[in-house]
C-alpha cells in the first residue's frame, strides 16, 4: 500500500514536471522571438549602443528586463502566482530611477508586443496590455533566494548579454530546481549556427581575421531550444518557431547526444570569450598538458553547454578569477541538459555543482568542467591538479 502511494506520488510529480517542462519550453520559444526582434533593432541602430551598465559594469538591455517580465508573467499565469517562485538575474533598480522613464516605456512596449503574440505559442495573452507597474511587478516577483528545500525556477533572461549586444551568441536559460537538484533545464539559443564551425565566428571582431566565409543571415540564424528532464536519459532539441507559424508541441523535437570522441587530440574545448571571465592562459596550459590540439572555441553564453549536449564540442572549461562567485542561473539549465545528453559536469575536484545553497554555487572548487564523458573528464581533472599550483589564479 505504502509502495503504491509512493509510486502514485512519483507519477503525479512526473506529470506535473512534464506540464512544467512544456510551459517552460513554450515560454523560452517566446523569449527567443522577443530577443531576435530586439537584437535586430540594436544592430540596425547607429549611435545608441543599446545597453545600460550595471554597478559591476556588466551590460543589461531592454531584452534582459523584457524576457524576465514575460517569462515571470507566463509562469505565474500557467502555474498560479502563489505556486511560483523564481530566482532571476535582473532587478528593477535601474528601471525605476527617475530619468529612466524612456527605458521603462521601451520595456513595457516590448513585453506587451511579446505577450500579444502568446497564443501563437499556445500560451495565454493578457486581456489588456500590462501597465508599467505590472511589468515592474513581474520583474521584481523573481526575488526568490533559492535554497535547499522546495521548488523554484532559476532564470537567466539573457545569458551572454555581451554577445547579445555584439550581435553574436547568447542564450535564454530556464531551470526548475527541486530540493536543491535541477529537475528541468531549458536553453534557448537563437543564434546557434547551422554549421558548428560558425560557433567560433564572431560577427563583429573576427570578420577580418577569420578565414571562414561569413555566413549569410538566414543560414546563421538557425537557432534552437534544447531541453531535458532529469532522470529521463534524454535531451531534446527543437527548431525555433518560424514567424507566423503556430507552435505545436513538441515542435519537431529530436533527441541530442554528446559526442563519442574521447581522444583529447581530436577533442574541441570551449570557453568564455572574455579573458576577464575565465583565464585563457590557464586553460591553454591545461589543453597543452592534456594533448588537446584544436584551437579553443570561444563562445558567449550557455551556448557552450548546448554545444556539448549537441555533440559539437567535447569540453567546456571556466576558471573565473579567485573571489568570483558563480551564480546558479548561469549553469543550472545547461548542467541538466548535458547530463541527460550523456555528459558530465563537475567542479575542478570532480564534485557535482551544488544548487542548494542560494543564488551562488557555494563551495565550488576552482572552476567548472563539462565534458562529453568520464574518460575525458578524468583527464581534465588530473591535468588541473598538476597545473594548479604553478598557476597564479
Ligand atoms: N568577472 C566575472 N567572472 C566570471 N563570470 C562573470 C564575471 N562577470 C560576469 N560573469 C558571468 O558570466 C556570464 C557570461 O559568461 P560567458 O561564458 O558568456 O562569458 S563571455 O562573455 O563569453 O566571456 C555572465 O552572464 P550574463 O550577465 O547573463 O551575460 C555573468 O553572470
Ligand atoms: Mg548569465
Ligand atoms: Mg543574464
Ligand atoms: Mg548580466
TrEMBL record:
Q: Which InterPro entries match?
A: DPNP, Inositol_monoP_metal-BS, Inositol_monoP_superfamily, Inositol_monophosphatase-like, Inositol_monophosphatase_CS
**UniProt keyword terms in alphabetical order:** Hydrolase, Magnesium, Metal-binding
GO biological process terms held by the UniProt record: inositol phosphate metabolic process; phosphatidylinositol phosphate biosynthetic process; sulfate assimilation
**What top-level class of enzyme does the UniProt entry assign?**
hydrolase
Which positions does UniProt annotate for Mg(2+) binding? 89, 156, 159, 330
Q: Which domain of life is it from?
A: Eukaryota
Cofactor dependency: Mg(2+)
MF terms per GO, please?
Answer: 3'(2'),5'-bisphosphate nucleotidase activity; metal ion binding
Pfam families, per this entry?
A: Inositol_P
Q: Which reaction does it catalyse?
A: adenosine 3',5'-bisphosphate + H2O = AMP + phosphate; 3'-phosphoadenylyl sulfate + H2O = adenosine 5'-phosphosulfate + phosphate
| EC number, UniProt record | 3.1.3.7
Segments passing through the bilayer? none
Give the protein's biological function: Converts adenosine 3'-phosphate 5'-phosphosulfate (PAPS) to adenosine 5'-phosphosulfate (APS) and 3'(2')-phosphoadenosine 5'-phosphate (PAP) to AMP.
**Family of this protein:** Belongs to the inositol monophosphatase superfamily.
Could you tell me what this protein is called? Answer: 3'(2'),5'-bisphosphate nucleotidase
